[in-house]
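Continuing the batch. This is chain 6 of the set; chains 1 through 5 are on the previous pages. Same settings as before, nothing changed between runs. Recording input and output for traceability.
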Amino acid sequence: MYNCRYCKEELKTMFVDLGLEPLSNDYIKQEFVGKGQYQLPLRAAVCEKCRLVQVLDFEMPEGIFNSEYKYFSSFSTSWLNHCKAYVDMIVEKLSLNASSVVMEVASNDGYLLQYFKEYGIEPLGIEPSRSVAEAAIEKGIETRIAFFGTEFARSLEKKADLIIGNNVLAHVPDIGDFVGGLKEALKPEGVITVEFPHVLNLIRYHQFDTIYHEHFSYLSVLAVKRIFEEQGLKLFDIEKLNTHGGSLRVYAIHAENQGQQVSRHVQELIAEEKAFGLDKNAAYQEFAEHVKKMKLDILEKLIDIKKKGKKIAGYGAAAKGNTLLNYCGIGKEIIDYVVDANPNKQGCLLPGTLIPVLAPEELSKSKPDYILIIPWNLKQEIRETLAYAKEWGAKFMTLIPEIEIFE
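Output for chain 6:
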């Protein structure tokens, strides 16, 4: 029996079962390839009480976000542009200045906080992974290497005018303690902005590859609003974003703060989720059947290409790709190699499938017939980066939300 990590209700409604999978960011160095790899069941369920979708079996954060963690946010140009636009917007919106206290939780390599420095604001980053935190420190960004929660928030010397949490809410096993920490660290008139992929889009567009062990939760407004309110915070606005296959940015303040009027967008998003069925069980249960069909369709297409003697390479050693490849059983017999711009991943093997990760220059050398864009949410950016592949007639391919082949 499994209970909801937030409200402790018994979990009875399965969302999806993706079988045994390694940790998606557990890239293997060549010298350790013969030592095996840790795997866990990758299953998710939805709580019928608080509507939080969550993985059932997981590795504790200390085992994931360690000194070997290899996800660096600064390797995506489109993501950096998104962050720069956010900083420009929020500085003006909140009238921030050099005396403002700005804090980001899960600040990674300083990908976002670097833009506050352009406004004379010296921000504080909080990041548990030493490997990426040190990259931020090298950029001159003050960074505390720690996991964030209520206890850590109480230790801070200053409370924040603005707290940012991009794609971190899904990464914490105790979401109540995390949100309680946001309230603890916030000034009485301060503002919190949190971005997260919207579970409605995950279901609607069959984005099963965004499910992996370090994503403990998959979030709706229904669930987030309840959690924030029970921790003494209220949502006063929500924006839809195009990032990560469809995300939300929620704005929150202390429940007792009457300085912000609640936007109509909050109720509009709740109404949209209810119309889609996120307050019922059927929408979640139907998702698993779509995923099974996708697996068969994906394998059929890739096997057909390989039977014709074509070479397939992957672009982007993204964590989501490791869920996709392992669930579908796609190994080196189908994908010859994957390239990635992150030098920390080059020379490693993908977890589970052991597909080698090489530098992008390999594409020009071996000239594959098909290039599978694994981080499909960056399809346009990658397509422009690899425009030179047209010289030898390579075709591009994405598999989610549906199989697409294009030039």
